[in-house]
Structures are given as structure tokens and as C-alpha cells.
Amino acid sequence: MTARIIDGNALAARVRGEIADRAAALSARGVQPCLAVLLVGVDPASAVYVRNKVAACEKAGIRSLRFDYPQDVAQADVMAKLAELNADPSVHGILVQLPLPPQFDEAAVLEAISVAKDVDGFHAENVGRLSQNQEAFLPCTPHGVMKMLESVDVKLAGAEAVVIGRSNIVGKPMAMLLTNAGATVTVCHSRTRDLAFHTRRADILVAAVGKPRFVTGDMVKPGAVVIDVGINRLQNGPDEGKLCGDVDFASASEVAGAITPVPGGVGPMTITMLLENTVISADRAARAVGK
Ligand code: NDP
Question: What pLDDT shows up at residue 1?
Fold first, then answer.
């Protein structure tokens, strides 16, 4: 079997076009959507992510504000900026790029962001709302995965779904979204005893491990939908320097029914959902003042 490719670039381009139309309509009503991004320190990957987010905003007609802080900045300085942005009615989304340097209490910083502007969906209140299947800002990566599954009409109700990874930003919210959609979900992690036993049962397999080519074809159920969240840069071998996912695409695509590539899969959808959340927040703000 050769799997159907779920093209994240094409889907992201389509959804970003719709978002740009909504942003233009809001701007015409006098409310240009605006995202504030805070970057602390010099982590090169974080700097690339922030640059991509700011560029994507610009392309979609969303205003962006960027605040850069040195690695040794005091948490209080960042908290003061968050308070200012929370109070600014022209700002609709606030994002603090993770990870933060070790002197930070990450949970405290995330909870200092107004729930109404938490477009990353990491505030404990938004996480709680998601777990209760109430309306909430959904974390961008798992939300993007749900859109990808929807785009290829994957039937979720009753499906066996396996998520590898239990992080707060990908694995856990992914499992909650799939549960809310009616799938039977197993969450695997580094303490899981027989990983392949679980993955081979999965109609939908989501890999969010952070290990290059970790999931191989023999771990995949024939015909399964395989979603590769991983973004890894290969350290050695003939492909050194290249990006690859957590799934060994060559062997898995021979067994799966559908699969996302890396790059060009989940990555572009993550930023797309950030833009969507910002526009949703701006729309709410516009309605609140009768615009
Ligand atoms: P974390 O490092 O926070 O989590 C990794 C998870 O994988 C943990 O739950 C860990 O288990 C589990 N794990 C590690 N080793 C094994 C193993 N041998 N067997 C089973 N499970 C294992 O990573 P993130 O969730 O933040 O990210 C995961 C990947 O997704 C990374 O490659 C990251 O770069 C990528 N990513 C991509 C995004 C995108 O836009 N496409 C956005 C965000 C992340 P345990 O909890 O027990 O340690």
C-alpha cells in the first residue's frame, strides 16, 4: 500500500486565505486583528518560530507586535508587559514563545495572559474548558491536526486513536480533542511498556515524540491514518541538517492509508490555527463594542 499524502501546505494556504478575508473585513469595521509575541532569550529554533509567526500575520493582514528580551531578564519585567498588553484593547492575542529560560515559572507566566487573549490555548482555564468540551481557544498544533483529519474525512467516532507523547502543548490536548470527537484514545509515553502493541491497533496514530524517524512501518496498522507532529533536524548521516518527523516516512507510507509529510504537514497548520484564534478574538472584541 502507498499512503495518500495529507498536504498541510495546501490546506494551510486555503485556510489562511479565508482568515485573510476575515481579517480584512474586521479591519474595514475599524478593528484590525493584532497579535503580540514575546520572545525571551536566544534559542535559535524559537527565533525561527517567532519570525515565521510574525511573517504569517503580516501576510494575513494581522498586525503583529514583537517584544524581545535577553536570556537573563527578570520574570517581573515580562509579567509587567503582559499586564500592559492584557489591558490594551487594540491587542487581541498574546503569545509567549516557549520554552522560557530556567529562572521562569512557566505556568505562572502562561496564567498571567488574559484568558480572552490566550490564542495559544495554554492558560489553565482554556485547558480546563477543553477538557470539559466547552468552547475554548484550542492549542494550535492539535487543533491543526483535527483540521487535517477533517480535510480527508477521517471518521473519528468509534475509531481507535493512539497518541505518542503526553506534553501539555501537543500530546495531552490532542488526546482530549480526539476524545471529544468520539475516538477511543490511548496515550503512550516513555514509560509505556509495549509501544508497538498499542500503535499497531491504531486507526489513527499521532506521533509527538521529538525523536527522528521513531515510528517505523512495522508499528503501523495497515490502512491507518498517520499524523507526524515531530520536527527534528538530523544530526548526522547522509541527510545531516535536513528536517524530518517522528515517523519513518519511507516505511510507514508503505503501510498507512494516509500520512502527513515533514516538512509540509502539521507545521504549516500550527501557525494557521494561531492566526485563526487571533481573528476569532478580534471578532469577539469588535462585537463587544458594537462594531
Ligand atoms: P516533549 O518533549 O514535551 O514530549 C515528548 C513526549 O514523547 C513525552 O511525553 C515523552 O514521554 C514521549 N516520549 C519520549 N520518548 C519516548 C519513547 N521512547 N517512547 C514513547 N514515548 C516517548 O515534546 P513536544 O510534545 O513539545 O513535541 C513533540 C514533537 O513535536 C517534537 O519533535 C517537536 O519539535 C514537535 N512539535 C511540532 C510542532 C508543529 O508545529 N508541528 C509544534 C510543537 C511541537 P514522557 O512524558 O514520559 O517523557
Answer: 66
Q: For ligand 1, what atom is nearest to the CA of residue 245? A: 32
Nearest-Å Rg of the Cα atoms of the chain is 19
Question: If we measure between CA atoms, which residue out of 228, 230, 208 comes closest to residue 217?
Answer: 228
Which stretches of the chain are assigned E, i.e. beta strand?
Answer: 4-5, 34-40, 63-69, 93-96, 160-164, 184-188, 204-207, 225-228, 232-233, 243-244, 258-259
Q: How far is the CA of 81 from the centre of ligand 1 (A)?
A: 30
Q: Is 141 in the pocket of ligand 1 (CB under 6 A)?
A: yes
Q: Residue ranges per domain, the chain?
A: 30-115, 140-267
Domain covering 30-115, topology: Rossmann fold (3.40.50)
Report pLDDT for 236: 87
Distance from C-alpha of 49 to C-alpha of 170, rounded to nearest angstrom: 16
What is this structure's pTM? 0.97
Q: Do the domains 140-267 and 30-115 match in fold?
A: yes
Cis preceding linkage at 99, omega within 30: yes
pLDDT of residue 155: 97
**Rounded average pLDDT per 10-residue block, the chain, 291 residues:** 94 98 97 98 93 97 98 98 98 97 97 98 98 97 98 97 98 98 98 98 98 98 98 90 95 98 96 98 96 88
Class of domain 140-267: alpha beta
Is residue 165 left, alpha or beta, with left meaning phi > 0 and alpha meaning psi from -120 to 50? left
Rounded Cα distance, 150 and 201, in Å: 21
